[in-house]
Specification:
With 565 residues, the chain is an alpha/beta fold. Helices cover 40% and strands 15% of the residues. It has a 6-stranded parallel sheet with strand order 2-1-3-4-6-5, with helices on both faces. A 6-stranded parallel sheet has the order 13-12-14-15-17-16, sandwiched between helices. Strands 8-7-9-10-11 form a 5-stranded parallel sheet. It is globular, with a radius of gyration of 25 Å. The structure holds adenosine-5'-diphosphate and magnesium ion.
Length: 565
Amino acid sequence: MWVLARSLVMMGVKEMYGLVGIPVTELAYLCQEQGIRFVGFRHEQQAGMAAQTHGYLTKTPGVLLTVSSLGFLNGLTATTNATVNCYPMIQISGSSVREPIDLQQGTYEGLDQLAIAKPLVKAAYRVNDIKDIPTAVVRAYRAAVSGRPGGVYLDVTTPCLGAIIDRDEAEKLFYKPVDVCPAVAPSKESVDRAMQLIAGAKRPALILGKGAAYAQVENELKEFVEKTGIPYYSMSMAKGLLPDDGPLSALSCRTTIMETADVVVLVGARLNWLLSRGHGKWAKNQNLKFVQIDIDPQEIDCNVPIAAPVIGDLKTSLDAMLAALPSYKLSIDPQWVPSLQAETKAKDAKFAQRLKDAATASPMTHWTALNVIKPILEANPDVILVNEGANTLDDTRDTITLSKPRQRIDCATWAIMGMGMGSVVGAAVSTGKQVVAIEGDSAFGFSGMDFSTICRFKLPATVIIFNNGGIYNGIGENMSKEGEAPYGDPAPTTLDIRARYDKLGEAFGADTYYVTTPQELDTALKAALASRRPTLIDVQLGADSGKESGHIGYLNPASLQNVIV
Ligand code: ADP
Ligand code: MG
């Protein structure tokens, strides 16, 4: 175990997230002894969410430690989610003795973990021999962080964890790998092809994705946008990479870009469901051509043809495009940017009016609460915002303007619920920054117990819960007949409109607030940010605030209205 702890130190690992038990407890002790901060959780899935957030924010793999069988499976959810989102992380799990697993003889926590992990992660390895541990850690690290980043599984068998080796002999095994994340350069032809297309465009636009936020290319993008004058649309977690309210930001013009741009440059963004897979509104746009800058050649053409793929690391690619720029003359229609700016101005005014109209609603709605939170967070641009829910997610994303990169962590590509408390911990631990989470009451339920981890580690984090008493809202109706079972049970979407989440915070020693008015919320949030102490704010909304699936109602197979006659 000491060899494994030392190998992690050699790779520069400073934090480990996990939950101990047989057979990895001593490993966590030895990691602490070696100077690694061990952040212990109440559920492995949340420890994994912390590790993936760590990976996204630092460009180095977050490390998750789990026990065998169920602990492994709980953690694997996060490692898989990291893989889907292209975040680097390494899940290290203890596993039982091989022989009785392979012969299925019913050993303690016996499960063929490597086989289960393989199809769900970027890479999976097993280490059986103590002498192989340093190599295994280096391989896992390289696999997580190089090329398209992802989740890596490292299976360490119990005999290997318990093996003993002479210290002098062990010292000879360690090494520091050279260049763990080589910057891959795009070919000159691909850069020229892309620049030619961009130069000929009358209505070009950039779509910035969280791959660009991950790659930390804000300076290159700023230069590219300033020199070309091309407007940009930021995907959810790319918000703030360039200022949301900058003169070339087209955040409010998504449909216009889809329907009328002639060249769209995808920068670390995928044409997946979040961009209608290149179909839907895009289909109206006959003249559109895509440039796509991405590290992964297999991403290209996965939905619609890409006219100019640029395969390489984003920084190297943007540098190459910037270097080529002086040899091209751009042909942007002089009406294009002003028309987007006019649309932005009109839409922003409408949005501001919506917030104003909700400002004094009683009981509060999502918009009433966000109207209070917006100016406070915008005055504290270094606070990292964690956000999940349905309406809580969509409305918060639309309301809060971000001006700095990597300030927003949300449920991302899979739009999953249950990343909240782990992400808060991962963000606070890996950056040292203050964190505010805005959580729907349902979303909070998936990870609520790990609010206690925020408290035990005294992290500067505030968790705000929008309680509307349910999934989407709290007004779902049980459709069974009166007097017949299951009449009287809550509807499938109904939770607890009268729950006092603040009492949960109290149990773990947090500062807590239960607020029913905008004034109370204002006071609570300002006090929380000033104190930098673990804080839980329970915001009481009306049960009718919120609609099914927020912005993505169309994804439900059929609305209830169509089902009920
Ligand atoms: P969004 O959800 O914001 O659209 P995605 O996660 O769908 O973003 O897309 C991110 C893309 O960024 C992925 O295709 C990934 O391969 C790419 N990517 C990640 N890191 C880099 C990098 N360093 N250089 C180039 N592309 C990258
Ligand atoms: Mg709710």
